[in-house]
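Sample pair:
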Amino acid sequence: MNRLREFLPNRADYKSARTTWRKDLVAGITVGIVALPLALAFGITTGAGASAGLITAIFAGLLAAIFGGSNFQVSGPTGAMTVVLVPLVTKYGVESLIPLGFFAGLLTLVLGLLRAGSIINRVPWPVMEGFTLGIAIVIALQQIPTALATPSIDGGRTVITAWRTIQGALDVGLNFSAIAIVFLTLLIKFTYPKIAHKFHIKAHIPASFLAIVISSLVVTIFGIDIPKVGDLPKAIFHIQKFELFGLGVYELIMAVIAIAMLASIESLLSARVADQLAHIHDDAHKYQPNRELFGQGLASMFTSLIGGMPATGAIARTSVNIRAGSTSRLSAIFHAAFLLAVVLVLSPIISNIPTSTLAGVLLGTSYRMASPANLREILRTTRLDSSILIITALIVIFIDLIWGIAIGTALYFLFSRSFVRSLLKRK
């Protein structure tokens, strides 16, 4: 029983809540504004729909905040998870997310109980940078059908699917209205921060949120006929019927392992980055990796049963949370409450958001994830680090996420000097 207590919420989680809750409220609303378009976009990209993205952001965000091991982590649907889920949804249907999400969440939870967090947390930084770069490129490729307002033509691998989709769009004729809205979204997303800095605009308005508002107004005012998000369900969530939906045992096991490993690695990476951004150095306040896995697993299990999908810790939203002044996990709870309020009140407005705008938001997010400046800096370091980064990214893009991490990590330790030296000493 004492061993189980470390995985459960306690008073220490909210020690500073009485004096700093106002800061957490502001941070929660800020990150909620950022999370809204991403939740919609990732839900649509996965094929589960905008409502699934919102359900995941709200309820996974809430449960992971309460039961997770980080004081600053913000969880929900992420680009990395869509990379794994898109081919599964394409092959087995959106209903397959119910058993896949539940069992993957259960496996993640068990990994936490078995204290596997410290092992997963040792993935080398060059591998994680290559992993992030590969994911960024795959996310961008996944946006091609939405950006062009054309059906996706399945080709198995993401690169082949993207190429066939572009060829199909060229054959039937490009939708220049949708493309123009994508470019308008990107223009606002990258230009507004510079304008705000130049004119000393103090009001913090996330560029993605502003881009969605302006582009949606342009589409409405000029009557541009392009696909929109569409009506959201009136019920916030509904219990799903649990069955395997044609999944074989082998397919189920392999997919569950892939989803659980990705959720574990991405969540722990995000939590580790959060502590660095918040300048947390003492062990008493650092994130607890095993509890984090427990919380993320519980969140994915629950959301998969109510119409959502597997969730992970989100690095971008977590960093926004910290920069906005978060002092405790209360800000992530406020973020979930804010999203719930928005969905209940503004559902008709959300339904009129152009999907091309959301594609533009994710293309901009992919560029930020790839971080060209940071990438150039890493490529100028040691040959080992730069080689591992490139190899990992290529495997992620052309083969698989988990294989990218596994092979990249194996190669890193195989060729690192410390490993070679240790072998020589043994001889």
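Residues 28 and 411 are 40 Å apart (CA to CA).
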